[in-house]
C-alpha cells in the first residue's frame, strides 16, 4: 500500500467521495472537448497523478493509464499472417492509446441480429448496435419504446442481417442513417447515426427473406431489398403445392417514412443487389432460374440471369397504374420475362444471362461497371451500365469476364483502377486491373496482378469507402468464414476471422497485417471516414419532447392513475434516484419513467429491478420508460447497473409492494 492509501484512510468517507467526484469531473471536462488528433490528453492526465483505482469507466483515460503503465503495447513482429501490430515491411495498423481510428467500420452481425462498430485500421471493436435482437447491456428490448419497436417490427426475437448500407447524399455518406436487411424474416431496419440506435424496423409485406439490400445512389431515394425465397404471394395457404406459382419480389422502401412503396415480381429468385451511381439501375444477381425447390433442381442449368431493374421505368409504371395487383397494400409490378412491361424500349426488368449461380453484385466507384462474381464459375462478369440503356440485346452489355480463381464471391475497389475479388474456394484475394479485363478475352487470366492467401474461405471484402464514388484505398478487410487454427481453440463454435490487408493507394503489393476474431457471423461491412459520422455525446431532450416526459428531480413521485395502476417518475444522477423509495400495491401495473439529468458524457445510470425483468440503461439527458406488473408483495432493491461513481453501489431505490389484502 502506498502513501495514497494511508492518506485516504485518514479521511472521512465524505471527503474521499468528494475528492473522487472532483477528479472525475476534471477528467470528464477534459474529454468533453473533441480530442485533437496528435495530442491526446495522455500527458496531462499522467500529470494529474490520478490513481489507477480511480478509473472506473472513462474510456479515454483508461487508454492513458495503459500508456503510463506500459501495458498496452502489442508485441511487434510476427510477420504477415500473424495477429500482430505491424508487418514484415513495417506497415503498422496500431492506433496508440488515447488516439482515435480514422475510419468507422460498420459490420453486419449475421444471425446474432446486431451490428458491430469497429475502428479502422486498429480493428478494435468500439460498440455494438442491437437491431433485431434484444441486448441487456444497452437495455434494448427492455424499455417500452424499444420493445414496441421490436414488437411492431414483427415480434421476432432474432434476425439475420447481412448488408449494412450508409445513407448517401451526392454519392457520398451523409452520416444520417444505416439500413440493414433481415434475411430471416424479410425485414429492413434503420439505425439513426445521431445516437447509433435502431429507430425503425419494417416487416416488409409479401416477402419472406430479404437478402440483398442497397440504398439507391446517389441520394438514397429508396432502400432496395431482394426477396431470396420464392413463395406464393400472398402466402396464405393457397398454391402451396404449386412451385410454378411461387414468386420472388424486389422491394423499394422510403428511407424517411420506412413505408413500402412498390414491389416487382420476377422470374427465378434474387440474391444480392447494388445500384449504379445515377439513380437508374439496380442490378441483382440471381440463382435458381430453374425455379426448383431442391438443390439438384436449382443447379440444373448452366445459365442464370442477372436482373437489371430500371427504377424510373418502374416508378412510371406504378404512377400510371400499370400494375395488376395490390397485395397487403403494396402495388406489385409484373417484371417477369413475359410481362407486357418488358416489351418496348424501356423494359422494367432486363434479364442478362450469366454462368450459373452468380453471387455478388458490386458497382465500381465511377458507376461504369457492375461486377458480378461467378461463385460456381471462376469468373467475374462485368456489365457496362452505360451500354445497358442502349443495346437491344442486354447480353451485349457484358464487356469483360476475367478468370480470377475458384469460388469468386465479392469484389471491392481502391479507386485507382483495381478490383479485388474474394475467392472462397481458393482462400485467396485476387487483385486485378479493371480496364485490362475489358480489353482481354473472356476467360483470360491476364488482368490478374496478384493473389494473396487469406485464412480461410473469404466471403465479403471491403476497401475503405469502396461503395462511394471516391474510395480511399489504403486498407481492405476480408471477412473469412472460417478461422480453423488461427486462434486458441474455444470449443466447436469457432470465431470467423476478419483480416486486415494493406493495399496502399493500390500501387502496392497486398500485405496481410492483422487477424481479428469475430463472433458469428458477419457477412459484410462498410467504412466511412470519421469526419462523415458525428454522433451526439448526450441526448438532446427536444428530440423526444411530447413523446416522453423529462423528469426533473423535483418532479419525482408516485401518481395513482387508476384502481390498479400507478405512474412512478424519478430522476437519476450520481449517485441517487429522485425517489429513495416508493410504494405500490400488489397487482398494480407500474409505469416507471426515469430521466438521467446529468449533462456530461459517459455517465449512464442503470435501473435494475430484481425479480421483475426490468433493466434500463439511461444515458445523459435521456428518458426511458418501462411498464410492468408488481405481482408479488415484498421489498425490492432497485439498483444502478452502470458503474457511475464511487457511490455507485449505494445508488439505490426501494420498491415496496404492499400485499393486496
Ligand atoms: S452474402 Cu454472406 S458472403 Cu449474405 Cu452478401 Cu456473400
Ligand atoms: Cu448510477 Cu451506477
Automatic annotation (TrEMBL):
Enzyme nomenclature, EC number: 1.7.2.4
Q: Name one GO molecular function term.
A: cytochrome-c oxidase activity
Q: In the UniProt record, does the keyword Transferase occur? A: no
| Keywords for this protein | Copper, Metal-binding, Oxidoreductase, Periplasm, Signal
Instruction: Say if the entry is tagged with keyword Mitochondrion.
Output: no
Question: Which residue intervals make up region (Disordered)?
Answer: 1-22, 76-95
Q: What is this protein called?
A: Nitrous-oxide reductase
Amino acid at each position: 500500500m502506498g502513501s495514497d492509501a494511508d492518506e485516504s484512510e485518514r479521511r472521512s468517507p465524505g471527503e474521499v467521495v468528494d475528492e473522487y467526484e472532483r477528479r472525475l469531473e476534471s477528467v470528464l471536462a477534459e474529454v468533453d472537448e473533441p480530442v485533437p488528433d496528435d495530442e491526446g490528453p495522455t500527458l496531462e492526465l499522467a500529470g494529474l497523478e490520478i490513481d489507477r483505482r480511480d478509473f472506473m469507466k472513462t474510456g479515454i483515460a483508461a487508454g492513458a493509464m495503459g500508456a503510463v503503465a506500459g501495458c498496452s503495447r502489442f508485441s511487434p513482429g510476427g510477420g504477415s499472417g500473424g495477429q500482430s501490430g505491424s508487418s514484415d515491411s513495417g506497415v503498422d495498423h496500431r492506433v496508440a492509446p488515447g488516439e482515435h481510428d480514422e475510419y468507422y467500420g460498420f459490420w453486419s452481425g449475421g444471425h446474432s441480429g446486431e451490428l458491430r462498430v469497429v475502428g479502422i485500421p486498429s480493428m478494435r471493436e468500439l460498440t455494438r448496435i442491437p437491431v433485431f435482437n434484444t441486448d441487456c447491456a444497452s437495455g434494448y428490448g427492455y424499455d417500452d419504446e424499444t420493445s414496441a419497436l421490436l414488437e411492431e417490427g414483427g415480434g421476432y426475437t432474432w434476425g439475420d442481417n447481412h448488408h449494412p448500407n450508409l445513407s448517401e447524399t451526392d454519392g457520398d455518406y451523409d452520416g444520417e442513417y444505416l439500413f440493414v436487411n433481415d434475411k430471416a424474416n424479410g425485414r429492413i431496419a434503420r439505425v439513426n447515426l445521431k445516437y447509433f440506435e435502431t429507430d425503425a424496423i419494417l416487416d416488409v409485406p409479401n416477402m419472406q427473406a430479404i437478402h440483398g439490400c442497397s440504398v439507391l445512389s446517389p441520394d438514397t431515394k429508396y432502400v432496395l431489398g431482394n426477396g431470396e425465397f420464392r413463395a406464393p404471394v400472398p402466402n396464405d395457404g393457397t398454391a402451396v403445392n404449386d412451385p410454378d406459382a411461387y414468386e420472388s419480389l424486389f422491394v423499394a422502401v422510403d428511407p424517411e417514412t420506412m413505408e413500402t412503396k412498390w414491389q416487382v415480381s420476377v422470374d427465378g429468385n434474387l440474391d444480392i443487389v447494388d445500384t449504379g451511381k445515377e439513380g437508374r439501375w439496380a442490378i441483382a444477381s440471381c440463382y435458381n432460374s430453374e425455379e426448383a425447390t431442391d438443390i439438384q433442381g436449382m443447379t440444373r442449368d448452366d445459365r442464370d440471369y442477372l436482373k437489371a431493374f430500371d427504377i424510373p421505368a418502374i416508378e412510371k409504371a406504378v404512377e400510371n397504374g400499370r400494375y395488376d395487383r395490390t397485395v397487403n397494400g403494396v402495388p406489385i409490378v409484373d417484371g417477369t420475362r413475359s410481362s407486357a412491361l418488358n416489351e418496348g424500349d424501356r423494359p422494367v426488368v432486363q434479364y442478362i444471362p450469366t454462368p450459373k449461380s452468380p453471387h455478388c453484385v458490386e458497382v465500381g466507384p465511377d458507376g461504369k461497371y457492375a461486377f458480378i462474381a461467378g461463385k460456381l464459375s471462376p469468373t467475374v462478369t462485368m456489365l457496362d451500365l452505360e451500354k445497358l440503356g442502349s443495346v437491344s440485346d442486354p447480353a451485349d452489355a457484358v464487356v469483360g469476364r476475367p478468370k480470377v480463381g475458384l469460388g469468386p464471391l465479392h469484389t471491392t475497389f481502391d479507386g485507382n483502377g483495381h478490383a479485388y475479388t474474394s475467392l472462397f474456394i481458393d482462400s485467396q484475394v485476387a487483385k486485378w486491373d479493371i480496364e485490362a479485363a475489358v480489353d482481354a478475352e473472356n476467360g483470360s487470366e491476364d488482368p490478374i496482378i496478384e493473389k494473396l492467401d487469406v485464412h480461410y474461405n473469404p466471403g465479403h471484402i471491403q476497401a475503405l469507402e469502396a461503395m462511394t464514388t471516391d474510395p480511399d484505398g489504403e486498407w481492405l478487410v476480408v471477412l473469412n468464414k472460417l478461422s480453423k487454427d488461427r486462434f486458441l481453440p474455444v470449443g466447436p463454435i469457432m470465431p470467423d476471422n476478419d483480416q486486415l490487408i494493406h493495399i496502399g493507394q493500390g500501387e502496392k503489393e497486398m500485405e496481410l497485417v492483422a487477424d481479428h476474431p469475430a463472433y458469428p457471423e458477419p457477412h459484410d461491412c462498410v467504412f466511412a471516414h470519421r469526419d462523415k459520422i458525428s454522433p451526439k455525446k448526450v441526448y438532446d431532450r427536444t428530440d423526444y419532447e411530447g413523446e416522453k416526459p423529462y423528469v426533473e428531480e423535483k418532479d419525482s413521485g408516485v401518481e395513482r392513475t387508476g384502481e390498479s395502476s400507478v405512474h412512478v417518475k424519478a430522476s437519476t444522477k450520481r449517485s441517487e434516484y429522485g425517489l429513495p423509495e416508493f410504494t405500490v400495491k400488489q397487482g398494480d401495473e407500474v409505469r416507471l419513467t426515469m430521466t438521467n439529468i446529468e449533462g456530461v458524457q459517459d455517465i449512464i445510470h442503470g435501473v435494475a429491478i430484481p425479480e421483475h425483468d426490468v433493466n434500463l440503461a439511461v444515458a445523459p439527458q435521456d428518458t426511458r420508460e418501462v411498464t410492468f406488473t408488481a405481482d408479488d408483495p415484498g421489498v425490492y432493491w432497485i439498483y444502478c447497473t452502470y458503474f457511475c461513481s464511487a457511490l455507485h453501489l449505494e445508488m439505490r431505490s426501494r420498491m415496496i409492494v404492499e400485499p393486496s389484502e
